[in-house]
C-alpha cells in the first residue's frame, strides 16, 4: 500500500507504476508515474537527487521516455524499486515532506498527457486468431479463413509513425478513394463511409538491435519496455480498394491512438497465463519458452454526441496467438534494426464470441447487422461526433493493474 | 562556370549544387554541397557569416538537413542563389581567400558521407507502369497484369525508416521464413536465396502538413526538397510467403540504400518533360497541372567479388506513371501528416524493353533466365560479395546534373 490514496478500483495502485509524459500548463514535458489519482513527477525527484544512478537521473530529466527505454532491464528494475520504496506507506521521505510532496505529486486532472516517446517506427501485427479468422470468413469463406502463412509466422505490416497520437486527440474522418465495383472501376474521392476502430495492445521497444543482428525470442523480454492500449483507426472502404497487392496504406495512416500510460512487464508479470502449445509447431526461431498471454480485461465503449455511453465489446489480452516476443523475434529475424521507442501493435484482439469482437467490421459483420446504442440510435460504423473509448485492466486480489484508457472522437471530414 | 574545377562529365557542376551531410575524421557532421570533386562546407560558411538570413545560417549549422528542408522554397531559392554567387568564376570572395578556401572547400575523398536527414517515415510507391505490368504478367498472366486500382491511384506501402542507410553501407543477406509449397506449407528459416535490388528514385519531403490537413497536388512541389537514387533491396522468397494479405514486410525491412546527395528540383527543372495525359483520367485531387517526368539516365551495374564490373540495366526517370506530386497528394489525402525529412520512394523504374528493367526479378524473368557477367559468371539473383551500383544523371548541353551513385555490397547471412 502507498501513502498516496488509491481506490480498490483504481488502475494505478503501487503495484502498477506505469510511466508517462505529461505537461502542466506551459511547462516543458516531464516524465511521471501514475499513482491513484496523482502523477509522481520523476523530473522533480531526479533534480532533487532521489535517483543516485546517473543514467536513471539523466533519463528522468528528458522530455520523452526514449532514453529511459534504451537503458534496459537492470535500470528499469532499479528505478521501479526506488519509486516503490518512496511511495510505500511506511516511507516517510516524501510522505512527510510537504514541500517535496507539493512539488512532486501532481493531481492527474492538472496533467495534459503527451505521447510517451518519439516513435521512430511503428509496426502493426495481426496476431489475434479470432480476428484473423473472422475477417477471413467474411472475405474468403469459412473454408479458407486463415491464409496458409498465418499459423507459421506473425503477419504484420509497417505503419505510419507520424500519425500515432495520444489518447484524447480528435480524429478527423479521412477523405479517400473508394470504388464500388472493382470489375468496372469508377472510383470516387469522398469522406470515408466505413470508419472503424481496432482494439489492440501495443508494446514499446526498449534497447534495440544493430542492423544485421537479431533479437532472439528468448531474449525479447529484455527489449520490451512496456505495454499500452491502442486504437488502430481503420477506413474499411479505402482499404478495400487500395490494399492489393501491397497492403493497407491510406486506410490506416490518418491516425492511430495510444493510451498515455505504459504498463511495465514487471507490473504485468502476475497476470501472465500459459497458452496451449502452438499447433502446428512453429519454427525454432519463433519458439517462445514463455509462450503465453496476459489476462487483461479489455472493453470498448462508444460515446455519442448526446452523451450516452454504450459498452459494445468485452475482450481479453489472452486472445492473442502470437506473443510480442515472437513478433519482435520475427521482425528482427532479417536484421531489421529496432530503436528505443519503436511501437509494435498486436493486431485486433477479438474473443471467441459475438460479444468480444474488437472491431465494428466484425461486430456488425461487415455492416450486415446493426448495433443499437443506449440512446436508441443504430450504428454499423462510426459517425461524426462518436467517441470510442477503450479501457483495460488486470484484476488482482483487491487491486487492479490498469491501462487507463485510449479515447478519440470523430470530427467531420475536411472536404475541400 | 565555377572557379572550382569541374569536368564536363562530372555529376556536380555549378548548375547542380546538391545537398549532403559529411564527416571529416572525427568532426561532427557538416552540411555541404557537392561541386566537382569537392564539397563546399556550408557549416563553415555559415559560421563565417556568409548567410545573412538567420534561419538559413542556423539550418546550415545543424548535423542533418531536416531543419533546412523544413524552411521551404523561398529559403531554398535564396540559399541556392548565395551559393551559386560564391562559386561562380567571377566571384573573388572565396576564390581568392586561401584561408577560407582551405577551410571550406574539402576534397570529396576526405568526406565520409552520412544519411542526409533523420527520416521520420519512409514510404515506397509502385509508380512505374512497366514494372507493375512485368510483375503482374509473371504473377497473374498478361490479361490481368495491372490490378484494377493501379491506374486510379498511386499504390504504395509504408516502409521501415530505421533501415534506410547511406550508399556504401554493406548489406547483410537477410535470414527469413520461406515456403516452397503454400498448399501444403512446411516453411523453413534460412538465408534469403532470391535476393534482389530495385532501381528507384526517391524524394525528401520539405515542409510537412498538420495531421488532418492535406497537401494539394498543385502545391506539392513546395513540399518536396529534392531527389536521390534509391535501392530498395528485396528478398523475393520471403516476400512471396509473407505478403498476403498485408503486403511486403520482412522482405523489405532489412535495408534500403540511398545516394548521399540530394538534387534539388531547381537543378532538375531543365530536364522535366511532359507525358501524354493519363488515361483513364485521374480524379481531380490527383490531376497534376505539371504532369510529366524527369529525363534522368539511370544505370545499374553489378561488381563481383573478383573486381569485374557489368552494366546490367539502363533505364530512365521518365518511365514513372505517377509523379511525386501525385504521390504526396494521395498520401496526405487522408490527412496523414508529413514531416521534413520524410522519404518517398518511386517504386521500381523499368523501361519498355529487356535492357531497361529495374530489378533482377524482371531481368531474369523470375529466375527463368540467367545473365552473364563480365567475368563469365552467371546470375539469377544476388550472390554474397556482389556489389550493386546505381547511378543517374541528366545530360545538359556540355554539363550533367548527376546524382552520384548508390552502392551496397552483400555480406553473407548471419545464421546463428
Ligand atoms: Ca490493426
Ligand atoms: Ca520498391
Ligand atoms: Mg492506424
Ligand atoms: Mg527496402
Ligand atoms: Ni504436409
Summarize this structure briefly.
Two copies of one chain form a homodimer. Chain A is an alpha+beta fold.
**DSSP helical segment count of chain A:** 11
| Alpha-carbon Rg of chain A, integer | 22 Å
| Overall 3D form of chain A | globular
Strand content of chain A: 25-35%
Largest sheet of chain A: 8 strands, mixed
Explain what this protein looks like in three dimensions.
The structure is a homodimer of 416-residue chains. The first copy, chain A, is of the alpha+beta class and 416 residues long. Chain A has eleven helices and 26 strands. The first copy, chain A, is globular, with a radius of gyration of 22 Å.
Helices, strands, pairings?
The structure is a homodimer of 416-residue chains.
Chain A: E1 19-23, E2 30-35, E3 38-41, H1 42-47, H2 54-59, H3 66-71, H4 73-87, H5 92-95, H6 98-104, E4 105-107, E5 112-113, E6 122-125, H7 129-140, E7 156-158, E8 164-166, E9 171-172, E10 175-178, E11 188-191, E12 195-196, E13 199-205, E14 224-231, E15 234-235, H8 236-242, E16 256-258, E17 263-264, H9 265-268, E18 272-274, E19 292-294, E20 297-303, E21 309-316, H10 324-331, E22 343-345, H11 360-363, E23 371-372, E24 378-379, E25 387-395, E26 400-411
Parallel strand pairs in A: 6-22, 8-16, 9-26
Antiparallel strand pairs in A: 1-2, 1-5, 2-3, 3-4, 6-7, 10-11, 12-15, 13-14, 13-22, 14-16, 14-17, 18-19, 20-21, 20-25, 23-24, 25-26
Bound molecules: calcium ion (2 copies), magnesium ion (2 copies) and nickel (II) ion.
Nickel (II) ion is lined by residues 184, 186 of chain B.
Amino acid at each position: 500500500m502507498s501513502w498516496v490514496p488509491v481506490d480498490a478500483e483504481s488502475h494505478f495502485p503501487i503495484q502498477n507504476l506505469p510511466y508517462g509524459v505529461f505537461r502542466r500548463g506551459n511547462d516543458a514535458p516531464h516524465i511521471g508515474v501514475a499513482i491513484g489519482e496523482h502523477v509522481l513527477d520523476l523530473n522533480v525527484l531526479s533534480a532533487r537527487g532521489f535517483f543516485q544512478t546517473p543514467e536513471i537521473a539523466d533519463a528522468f530529466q528528458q522530455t520523452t521516455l526514449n532514453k529511459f527505454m534504451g537503458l534496459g532491464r537492470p535500470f528499469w528494475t532499479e528505478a521501479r524499486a526506488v519509486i516503490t520504496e518512496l511511495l510505500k506507506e511506511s516511507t516517510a521521505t516524501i510522505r512527510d515532506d510537504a514541500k517535496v510532496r507539493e512539488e512532486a505529486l501532481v493531481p492527474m486532472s492538472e496533467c495534459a498527457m503527451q505521447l510517451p516517446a518519439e516513435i521512430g517506427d511503428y509496426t502493426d501485427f495481426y496476431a489475434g486468431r479470432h480476428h484473423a479468422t473472422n475477417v477471413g470468413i467474411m472475405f474468403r469463406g469459412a473454408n479458407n479463413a486463415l491464409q496458409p502463412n498465418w499459423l507459421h509466422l506473425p503477419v504484420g505490416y509497417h505503419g505510419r509513425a507520424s500519425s500515432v497520437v495520444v489518447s484524447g486527440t480528435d480524429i478527423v474522418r479521412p477523405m479517400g478513394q473508394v470504388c464500388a465495383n472493382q470489375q468496372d472501376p469508377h472510383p470516387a474521392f469522398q469522406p470515408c463511409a466505413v470508419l472503424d476502430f481496432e482494439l489492440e495492445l501495443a508494446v514499446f521497444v526498449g534497447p534495440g538491435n544493430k542492423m544485421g543482428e537479431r533479437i532472439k525470442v528468448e531474449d525479447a523480454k529484455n527489449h520490451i519496455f512496456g505495454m499500452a492500449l491502442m486504437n488502430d483507426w481503420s477506413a474499411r472502404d479505402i482499404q478495400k480498394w487500395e490494399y492489393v497487392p501491397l497492403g493497407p496504406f491510406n486506410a490506416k495512416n490518418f491516425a492511430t491512438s495510444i493510451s498515455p500510460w505504459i504498463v511495465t512487464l514487471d507490473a504485468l508479470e502476475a497476470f501472465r497465463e500459459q497458452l496451449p502449445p502452438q499447433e502446428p509447431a512453429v519454427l525454432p526461431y519463433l519458439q517462445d519458452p514463455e509462450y503465453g498471454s496476459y489476462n487483461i480485461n479489455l472493453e470498448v465503449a462508444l460515446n455519442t454526441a448526446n452523451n450516452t455511453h454504450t459498452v459494445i465489446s468485452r475482450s481479453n489480452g489472452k486472445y492473442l496467438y502470437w506473443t510480442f516476443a515472437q513478433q519482435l523475434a520475427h521482425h528482427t529475424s532479417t536484421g531489421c534494426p529496432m530503436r528505443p521507442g519503436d511501437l509494435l501493435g498486436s493486431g485486433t484482439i477479438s474473443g471467441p464470441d459475438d460479444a468480444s469482437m474488437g472491431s465494428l467490421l466484425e461486430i456488425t459483420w461487415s455492416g450486415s447487422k446493426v448495433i443499437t446504442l443506449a440512446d436508441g440510435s443504430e450504428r454499423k460504423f462510426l459517425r461524426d461526433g462518436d467517441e470510442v473509448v477503450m479501457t483495460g485492466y488486470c484484476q488482482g486480489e483487491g487491486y487492479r493493474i490498469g491501462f487507463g484508457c485510449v479515447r478519440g472522437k470523430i470530427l467531420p471530414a475536411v472536404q475541400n
